[in-house]
Each structure stands twice: as C-alpha cells, then as structure tokens.
C-alpha cells in the first residue's frame, strides 16, 4: 500500500483547507478497496449518484483524468488532487479539465468526430436521433470554438472561446458537479467557494431544436373581449 501524501502537502498543492481535507479523506476511505484505491465501478457510481455525471462516455473520461498513472485505479493522491479541481477548481483549472474530458483520444485536440459523438450522447433522452441535425450543431459549435480555423479545437482555441462565452465550457455534456453539490459533498460554505468558479457549471446540455407541433403552427385567434358591448339606445316614448 503506497504512502498517502501528507495533509500539510495537500494544503500547499490543492484548493482545500484542513477541514475539507479531512472530509475528503473520509470519503476516500469509504470508497477505497483493500488496496487503498478506488476502482472504476465505484468511481462511476460516485459520479452518477452524487455528482449527476451520468453519460457513460464522459464518466470514463473523468475517470481517466483522475487516474494520472493510468493503472485503472484512483489512489489517494490522485483522488485528492483530482477533487481539488473537480470540486473547488479555479476558473482556469476547470476550463482545462473540461478540455481534457472532451479530448476523447487524448491527442490534445477536440475533433469534429469527437464533437459528433459527444453531442449525440448528450441530447435529451427520448428525442429522435437526427444525424443531420447533430452535424449541423457540430458545425455551429465548431465555428464558436475553432479560433484559428484549422477544423479542430486546440486547448488555446478552447480557452479563448470560453473566455468570450463561458456557457460553452460544458457544451458537450455535464462533466463537473454544480457548486451546490460540491458544497454538500465536502461541507463548505457558500462564501468559501472561489469567486471565479461560480456560475461556470450551469451551462445547459446542447440539444437539437424541438420540432414545432401542430399547435405551434396554428394561427392565434384574438381573444374575446371581456368588455360588454354598449346597450342599444332606447326608443323615444311616443
């Protein structure tokens, strides 16, 4: 069993205070196996049940971002450093984390093919699959993200685009928890959340425009007036 990094070193290398380190250590211990590591299955359950990250593709990518030594387990040091960004990351840390998640093959670029795969996955459940519509959406998002116009998104492109429009940060599906969930998990107060990390997790999932229903096409009829019509004049007495 590998020796755990000390709380003193974690105070220097993470965004946690001492109480939060103790809280996260308790969480890790409850999740870890006899080898003092968290396996993929338990980590996926944590992502889905606690943090609301339930897209299978993105769950795997988040796991890979935590698993720094690629041994298919998350050790204590990896858990604490990963959670530092996942739960309390500074703005630039969170932007880079999302880029790593969306870079599915780890080649340091987000390609059109990767965008297509992720956008298909993060459409609203139950909606009809429309590949042409997804391709149109990919083209639209690529225009916003691809700042050097080379047909793919580098980390520099990503950072520049998010600086202009932060709602794009989770454009390909939720891969981070909301601030509220993060606070509940580690027991931090609202005023302890880094100011530059607030409001960056509320981006809605991309979805295809809903097809208009017949009711939406029907012309609107003018409402009947609630004012009574004027009474007819009385005939003059003979």
Could you characterize what this model shows?
- This protein is mainly alpha-helical and 238 residues long.
- The protein has helices at residues 7-13, 18-31, 40-51, 56-66, 76-88, 91-102, 112-121, 131-145, 155-164, 179-186, 214-217; strands at residues 37-39, 73-75, 109-110, 153-154.
- A two-stranded antiparallel sheet has the order 1-2.
- Helix 4 crosses helix 6 and helix 6 (91-102) crosses helix 9.
- Mean pLDDT is 83; it is low at 195-227.
Quick take:
By secondary structure, this protein is mainly alpha-helical. It has helices spanning 7-13, 18-31, 40-51, 56-66, 76-88, 91-102, 112-121, 131-145, 155-164, 179-186, 214-217, and strands at residues 37-39, 73-75, 109-110, 153-154.
